[in-house]
Amino acid sequence: MMKKTTIALLFSAASLTLFSSCSDIDEAERLIPAGDIPVDTIPGGSADSIYEAPVSIVPRRVLIEDYTGQKCANCPDASENIHALQQVYGNLLVPVAIQSDYMGIMEPEGLANELGNTYFNSLNFTPKVKPAVQVSRFYGDVLTSNTDVNFYVENVIPIPTPLDVRLKATQQRGSGTTVDIDVKVICTDSLLTDAVSGKLQVWITEDSIVAPQDYLNGQHFTDYVHNHVLRAAVNGDWGEAVSVSGWSDTKEFHYTATLKAGWKPENIVIVAFVYNDDGVLQVVRRELTIDN
User: Fold this and answer.
1) Mean pLDDT score of the chain, rounded to an integer?
2) What predicted TM-score, i.e. pTM, was given to this entire model?
3) Who wins on pLDDT, 4 or 247?
4) Is the separation of the CB atoms in 272 and 282 below 8 Å?
5) Considering only CA atoms, which of 229, 231, 228, 226 is closest in space to residue 215?
6) Can you tell me the distance from the alpha carbon of 6 to that of 161, in angstroms, rounded to the nearest whole number?
7) How confident is the model over 61-73, as pLDDT tens digits?
8) Which of 43, 49, 209, 236 is least enclosed, having the fewest CB within 10 Å?
9) CA distances from 152 to 93, 176, 200, 207, 262 (A)
10) d(CA 249, CA 256)
11) Res 193 pLDDT > 90
12) For 66-130, what is the HEC assignment?
């Protein structure tokens, strides 16, 4: 398991050249939805083929937790920066927008919810401000500038991970609001002498939600497109224990979730990740498949 001391050495040895250009987005390209970013880890592969593919060493994908709010005028800038990073790194980035009542609007009128409140209030930084971002929870750091987010993403992605997380989510057409979710956690490190232990967290997110958003210079959009919005936790607010050891050791989990009224199945994306005190070890996102 990659320890924080090793991570710190990798960070200190990394180049200090920051690619801040990711946040320099032309005005005409602002507020572009990011829902079209590929999610497959095997090009052209179906959810089933990826889920059942032979065990192999896979790259680290990075979870970006974007703490945001509809009344936060600076928050769209952070969201746009994350979208620009996705153009660089593609499916290696898994963003989730976490809305809470601080500078937000609570459900059902808005997108904030009690789950978002729980996560935002648990962050160890003061004063609490938005936007605030965590990049795979490394160091537990909460980042408040695009430059810092870019630096963390650039340097976390190359760190090897001992895990693969696979995911498929299906809804039978005509079955109402029920969703079936299957997750595999697989050990991909043949040199491990100790088990990799942590917690598996499964979230429901939604893309392409049109809702109000405050913006810079006193602007207010009534038709802003919100993506990666955290809707619910499938297996508890903080997930459940998981442990694997040795090459191809696999743990499987099955969940049944219910979509709330107003959530659009065609825009639902499930996110699953494993984390421990070292941060997020691996993450994956998968669009909901609607079967006939």
Assistant:
1) 86
2) 0.85
3) 247
4) no
5) 226
6) 13
7) 999 999 999 999 9
8) 43
9) 12, 41, 23, 25, 35
10) 24
11) no
12) EEECCCCCCHHHHHHHHHHHHHHHHHHEEEEEEECCCCCCECCCCCECHHHHHHHHHCCCCCCCC
